[in-house]
Structure formats: structure tokens, C-alpha cells
Amino acid sequence: MTVVDRRNDAPADEAEAAEVVRAARRDGIKLDIVGGGTRAGLGRPSEGAARLATARIAGIVFHEPAEMTISIRAGTPLGVVEEALAAHGQMLPFEPIDHRALYASRGEPTVGGLVAANASGPRRISAGAARDSLIGLRLVNGRGECVKSGGRVMKNVTGLDLVKLICGAHGTLGLVTEATFKLLPKPQSEATIVIRRLDDERAVAAMTRALGSPFGVSGAAALGAGMGREFPRTFLRVEGFAESVDYRAERLIALLADFGAKHALRGEESQRLWRAVRDAEFLAEPRGHAIWRVSLPPSKGPRFVARLGALALSHFYDWGGGLVWLASEPTEDAAAAVRAALAPLGGHATLVRAPDALRARVDVFEPLAPALARLTKGVKASFDPDGLFNFGRMVAGA
Amino acid sequence: MSQIAFPPVDASILARRDAILAGLAAILPDDCVIADLVGRRAFETDALTAYRRLPLAVVLPRSSEEVARVMKFCRDSGVNIVPRGAGTSLSGGAIPQEDAIVLGLSKMSRILEINLADRYARVEAGVTNLAISEAVGPEGFFYAPDPSSQLACTIGGNIGMNSGGAHCLKYGVTTNNILGVRLVTLDGEIVEIGGPQLDAGGLDLLGLICGSEGQLGVVTEATVRLLRAAEGARPVLFGFDAAEDASQCVAAIIGAGIVPVAMEYMDRLAIEICENYAHAGYPLDVEAMLIVEVEGGNEEMAAELAKITAIARTHRVRTIRESMSAMESAQIWKGRKSAFGATGRVADYICMDGTVPTGRLPEALRRTGEICAAYGLRVANVFHAGDGNMHPLILYDVNDPAQQQKAEDAGMDVLKLCVELGGCLTGEHGVGIEKRDLMRRQFTEADLAQQMRVRAAFDPQWRLNPAKVFPLDGRAA
């Protein structure tokens, strides 16, 4: 903290940020990138000596509604972006998770943090993750150089796609200063079909049938008993123009009649439900529980949970069963059990919430096979040869 | 007379040809190595046929293990490698050189697993794009990216180029539809990246490999997303008297919150060429035509088409033709998808695929016309209007070297225009050799150096498809 000038802790623009990085490199100071601070608990505790904040690198660079694109500086609060888009009936397609419920964190999530985390939500199954909508970005790398990748057009295969690589890298490849996204029109209408009292296997079976139907399901989640109601509920969402939503909701109810599909939630009730699913609100309490996010083929979701037995304190499914949100005890033994249960099934698990001490001792992200770890190390070094950024955030000692 | 340069051939590799052939013969079965002149000729070019170079040898391994042996052998003996799928690259991505072997994936063409419950398929890299959709079509599923060459092009090639297609407005391009790959590195290691689940752990190397043009490793298998097809799809044709009206109609449709699955644009010359070939029923008396396709149930489609048609009417649409049957729809698409082949019957052509922000399309079209006219060349425009991905087909006579030069110069000028308008050099065909030397138009030295350092993390010796993507000078050692 002493060597990097405190005034530059929050540089005013990309050029100033590059200067800070060059100075830090010269002086051997490791930097923790800070956005809104709402997701600081994600990843291993990083070990930087100084902070590099995006707060002042903010603002919408352009929003072209007719082109369905927006370019935003990293420190811009997401709320500002969503408001600007809503004014034109548009949205970020991937329904980014707001981590404040899980971490009980304050402040405003920023665009930079969203990119770093590849934050996505229930609509991942139909509209992709943040990385799928991200079409360009600017970055200060560990040499203090300003680098761009991608651009502002939706189709672009010019050169290596560093955009996807940087999205979800948790700030370990550099400081993202600007991001450009493609957008979607905000759906005029939505309906969520509710099916009650299915066990896990049946819930995934119902969601699989729905997702294998031609009716464009954009959300498929299954909540356990005690999550809003005393009995388990399975939810299937359709979105779009009102007449199309009515038609598809009706067809899905008929398709799933033997599972007990009868009625649909509408409007604000539906929206509130999907916000809660998106933010994993059902697992936020008790705060002492460790929280896992496990991605695997949907048909294996219930088997994974069953293998954990009583170690799975609480869980629910998103992505038609392909995403398991899970609470466990915050212990090394429980962490080992989660990885052991998943290993024979394939997939990957991220320890999203746990005390710092535990996240420092166990793998937060799925451990990589040796060859993959070697390639990853080479890629990291190609951006950040001295390991300046978010040291230890993804991998211990790197 | 050719404009695109190749790097000097490494004479030390040529001098070792016999030893290299013997080495390859020792690690592969006889029928997997092609050394004779006639056999090698079949691999000297791709769809950028104006350029051809005879490879040192061609290997056609049958498994990831055989690929791994070839890679390790080439690394140890210092031989360049040019990976190849079906050889349909329009940017010269699969064109070899005399000091390189071609590593073809054509013998690895099995579909390994289809899992409709979890909505993925695992295939070998040599499987054609269309074969996947054909395999799952009877169950109502499909693999979304649909490049015009989908009958021939392979998944491995699609991943190499991050291929698009006409329907990516709704469904995205290859990178949005691939879940995992098996990658063989230059060291001969077989690495699994991603898998049948939606997200992978660690850095997104899958996203990096998609579109890396065979420079990071050789993809031997892929896990691809399968989607359930909509209940139905229906295209409508709109004919306009002015290109400007058609372009503005596209912007207005998007502005109204409608995202059709496809919006294709054709100009007068393209309409004429395609109609003569495919007899799709295109209107011949208009300056510009849009094919707009919607999906869903019958009533859904009718409702959406009504909205779209109302918008077209406010943009002076002259001809409206809504498809009334599956056969008619197929006919409409046949015309569009045969654009390249049909054009090839009337003239030689080069096809650029620069992308511009959709708001700049009218200007891009006008100036493309002016550029080609200044060179005395004809140009037909067929493109994905919804995403600004242009495809000017610049017509010339390959037997006239001066004309070829002019066509290439015009093409380069069009690409410079795309970058100037805020777009990029290539939307889906890849850089290859064709646009390599224009990369500095789009990227700074720092941008390119960063990309090359990432590349070097996989291939420090520049053995994999070395003459592609990056300008020949200024490469990092």
C-alpha cells in the first residue's frame, strides 16, 4: 500500500490505470482489483498488497438500441446499465446473478465484476452465459499495456478470441476497463408453469421433457420443500410476445399434465421467483453454511445429490438440473466429500461461499488435470508475467 | 500473379523429406500417409482456390492417439503442421506449404454419443456439420450453427474458424454451441477441455480454442449442444426498390423488439444469379431483397410475421411473399444457400466477410459498390443483415491475372472500409492467409503481441498452421 501512490488507488481512466500497473510491476507490488465489492467472497482470498479500483473508470460509452449493442466502462454500476437498457426495452440476455444475497455484501455490482465472474443466471440455458453476450473488451495487462479484443459487432472471428478467455478469469489476466455486449429485447410477457410435489428425479424428468420440447423454455428450476412452500416445486418459464407466451404456456401444461402441471405464475410473481432462483436466495441463510455451485449434465444432478446423503444440507436445481446449488458444512471434510461425489459423474464444482480460512486451504474451483493446468499457467503468464493481478484468486501461488 | 505472400520455405525441412516420410510411416499405418504427388495434389488448396501449395506429405490419422504421435514427431523433428477438415475454408485456412504436412481429420468421422436427455452429442472432428443435425433430426433436435457449406464442412473446421451461419442471429455461432473438445497439443498430450455440462472450470480455454484457426492444437473430438427445433419455421421474402429501404427495415424490425431467427439480404445481382440457378421464385425486378424467417407454432409465426410485415410496409416494401409450405420454404433457402455455388457458375469470385455495425450497413453497401466500380468489377451482395456480416462476392476472371489483382485489391479495400466503419475484417470465414496482412488495420501492435504470446503458450515454435492469422513480419520469437 505504501509504494503505489494512494491517489492512484482508483485511476480516472484506462491510461492512468496502465500507469499504476507499470509502477506496481516496477516495484513488485501485487494488485487486488476492486469493483463494487459485492462478490469479494468469490474465489480464493487474494493476496495483493495494494488495491486497484475501477470506481472512476465508469460510464456508458455507447448504447445503440437498433444494433442491440452497448459498451460500458468497467466501474459502471449494473443498475445504471439496466436502467439505460430498460428505457429502450432491452436487457443483458444472461440474467446475471446478484451476489449480494449470498454474501450479505453491500455496494453496487459493477460491469467489471460481472465480466470477471462470468456472472450468469437461469436464462443461461437459452441465452448463454455472460461470455456468450460479450463481444468485445479492453484490458490493461500485467505489462501495463492497453489491449483490446473483439469489437462492437456481433459476428467477429478476427484473431484469437481473448474476450471469452478473460471473461470468468476473476481478474487474474488483467484489469478489464471496458466491455461491449450484445443485447436482447426485454420480453413483453412471461409465464412460469408450476408443478408441485415432484421428487428430485421426477423434477429433472419434467424439466428434461420441457427442455426437449419446441416451446422455448428460458428457465427450468426445481426448489425443495421449505423453499417458499412446504412442498417441492418445479418451475418452467417461457418469455416473449404475449400471444406467444400464452400459446407456449398452454402447450407446456398439456405436455406436462402427467407430472401435475396445471397453472402458471405471471408478471411480477414470476419475475420475483426467478430473481430468487438467480441469486440463490434460498441458500443465503444460515450464513454459516458453505455454498457450492455445481455444473453437470442434468440427468446426473439428482444422483450427485443422492451420493452426498446427509452432507447435502440443502439444495436446489437450476438449468433443468444441470446446475446444482448446494449447502454443506464449511469444513475440509465436506469439501472433499463434494469433490468425491462429483468425480465419477463428471462436471465441476465451485465453492462459492465459505470462510476465508477454508477457501485458502481447499480448491475453490475444480482442480485441473495436469496438462490443462500447464496450459492455463502459460496463458496466465502471457498476460501477467509477474503475477501482479489478483494473486492466488483462482490458483494458490499464481 | 498473386498478392498474398507465403513465408519462405524452410529448406532444412525439405532436405529431410525422406527421413520425415520414413518417420511418419513408422508411427502410422500405410493407408494413413500420402506421399505421392497425385495424392498430395488433392490437398494443395481449399476453397480459396486461387492459391495452392503442395504439402510435404499428408497424414490421415484415425484416432487421437495417432494424432498425438504425429504431433510429437513433428515437434521433435521440426516439421510444420497444417490441420485440415474438409478444406472448405474461404480464407485459405487449410492451404499448406512445401515444408508442412497436412494433418487431415477425414478418417475421424464417427458420431460417438448422442444424449438427447442431456442435449449433447460427442463427435469426432471429421464429422460434417450437417451429419449431426441429420442424426438427431428424426427426434426433432438439431445442431444450430449452419454455415452454407454445412453439407461438406466438418465440426473440427467449424471450431477452428468459429463458423457462423444464417441462423446465428438467434442461436449464436460455433463458440456458443460447443461444450467441450478433446485437444491434442504439439507436445502430443491429449487434453479434455469442457464436457457435457454447460460451464467448465478454470480459464475458458474452450472459448479461446474456438476460432484459433488450428494454431493452438488439433481438435480431435467435440461435445456439441443439441437444441430442440421449433415447431415450424417460415420465411418471408420482401423486395425493395432501394437498398436503403431494406437496410432500414432491418433496423426497424430489431428496434421493435423482434429478433427473427434469420434476416438475409441479397442485392439485385445476387438475386439474379441465385434465381437463375435455384428457381426459388425470387423477384427479379427489385434492387434488394430480405429473407426474414420466424419460428414457432402456426399462430405464433403468423402473429410475428404480421408484425414484421407491417414494419416492412412502412419501409416501402414492393413485393411480399410469405412461404405457404415446407417445400416453398426449402426453395427459398436453397436459393440463398446456393449463392456461392451459383456465383461460381457465372464467374470466378472472391468473397469477403467483413462485419459492420448494422447502423452503418447502407453506407457500407454504397461504398462497397463504389470501390468495386472503381476497379471496373461487378459485385453481388448476399449477407446476414441482422448482424451486419457482409458477403460481397467480387466477380473476376481467374485467367486474367490483372483482373485477379484488381479483385483482391478491391476486396482488401472493402475490408479496410469495414474496419473504418467500426466493424471487423472477418465475421465468420476466419483470417487465414487472406486477411493476415490487414490485421494491423484492426489491431495495435500491443493487441497483436498479446494474441501472439497466448499463441506461443501453446506452440512456442510456431509449427501449427504457421503462415496464418498474424502478419508475417513482427512475429514474436
Could you give a short description of this structure?
Chain A has 398 residues and is α+β, with helices and mostly antiparallel strands. Helices cover 31% and strands 23% of the residues of chain A.
Return the structural class of chain A: alpha+beta
Runs of chain B in which pLDDT lies below 50 for 5 or more consecutive residues are none
For this structure, the CATH topology of the largest domain in chain A is: Uridine Diphospho-n-acetylenolpyruvylglucosamine Reductase, domain 3
Strand content of chain A: 15-25%
Helix content of chain B: 25-40%
* Major protein interface: A-B, 84 and 94 residues
The shape of chain A is globular
Give the amount of beta strand of chain B, in percent: 15-25%
Distance between the termini of chain A: 20 Å
CATH topology of the largest domain in chain B: Uridine Diphospho-n-acetylenolpyruvylglucosamine Reductase, domain 3
Estimated radius of gyration of chain B: 22 Å
